[in-house]
Every structure is written in C-alpha cells, then in structure tokens.
Amino acid sequence: MDRRKFIGWFSVGALASSLPVVIAACSSSNNQPLVQPEKPTTDKGVRKDGFQSVGTVQELTEKGSILDKKNLPKPVLVLHNPSSNNLVAVNPTCTHQGCSVAWEADTKTLSCPCHGSKFNPDGSVLKGPATKPLESFTAKEENGLVLVKVG
Known about the structure:
Number of helices: 2
Largest sheet: 6 strands, antiparallel
Order of helices and strands: HEHEEEEEEEEE
Helix content: 10-25%
Strand content: 25-35%
Radius of gyration: 27 Å
Distance between the termini: 75 Å
Shape: elongated
Number of strands: 10
C-alpha cells in the first residue's frame, strides 16, 4: 500500500471513530433546553383574582408609563389617564398594522410611529389609519404596586 492510500484510509477511520463522540456531544441526555428562559426580575406572579404586578406606583410616577412585554400573556402599557387620573392599561400593538404605539405625554396621546395613527389614553382611535381601538385591560394600584388583569 502506498502512502496516499494509507493516509486516505487512516483519515476515513479517524473520522468514523470520532463520529459517535460528535453525536453524543450534540444530543442531550436530559430534556432541558440549552438556553434557559429569562426569569422576571421581580415577583410578577398571577394572583388568585387574576391580577399581576407590572411595576410599582413610584416607577409609574417617575417614568410616566410602564411597558411590560415579557411577564404577561400580551404586551401591556400602563399610564395615568390625564383626564380622569385613573390607571389605564392597553395593549400597545397598533390595530392598523401591528407596530408598537408610544405614550406622548406632551400631546397626551398614544402614537404609532409607522403610519401616524393616534389613540386616546383609553385606547380609542383619535386619528387613523387605524379604525379599531387598542385592547384595554383592568388596572389598579394596591400596596404600592401597579396591578393589571389580562384576559
């Protein structure tokens, strides 16, 4: 056997003998995901009455609004309704084409940056092209927490 054939067969043998090691390394013997899901930084568990904490009253006062996209089944934007000073919670997904609306404190409106739709703080349409209101949720303050009931 010449040297080329020997090196060729040796390479095939080395590759074939390392294949089980590669397969074992790629398979998982335990059924845990490789990437651990992100855990909320605060206790935001759902209570028996269906309300869930999205932040603190202090945080709402300082920021003007609270946006939670991770800890609830749907995204939620909470703010004080300037006309009634009650808490308002809406899904910030624009009903026109799904962009995220943002609270504009100076105009007291929720504005869509994509196509210019504007919504009142309660989620009703102020200006199109959106024709449907934003989905709204029940919100309240309790023991220094801002609570929202989604569902």
